[in-house]
Amino acid sequence: MIIITVISLWIFGLRIIQTILMLVYMKQLTKQPKRNLEFQVGSDLVMLVYKKSLIMDLVNQ
Question: What is the 3-state secondary structure (H, E, C) of 18-30?
Fold first, then answer.
């Protein structure tokens, strides 16, 4: 039960961080259009896979 709470809090924290990063990124995007877009999408995909594997590790323990 404690583990589930920790995981949900952790995911919630990641959501907040992601939202903040997204807001910052949108500000950057308006300053310099379309230069780092491919890089941003790529790093987002990497982060998604990384988060999924971390969650799987937590669940499997």
Answer: HHHHHHHHHHHHH
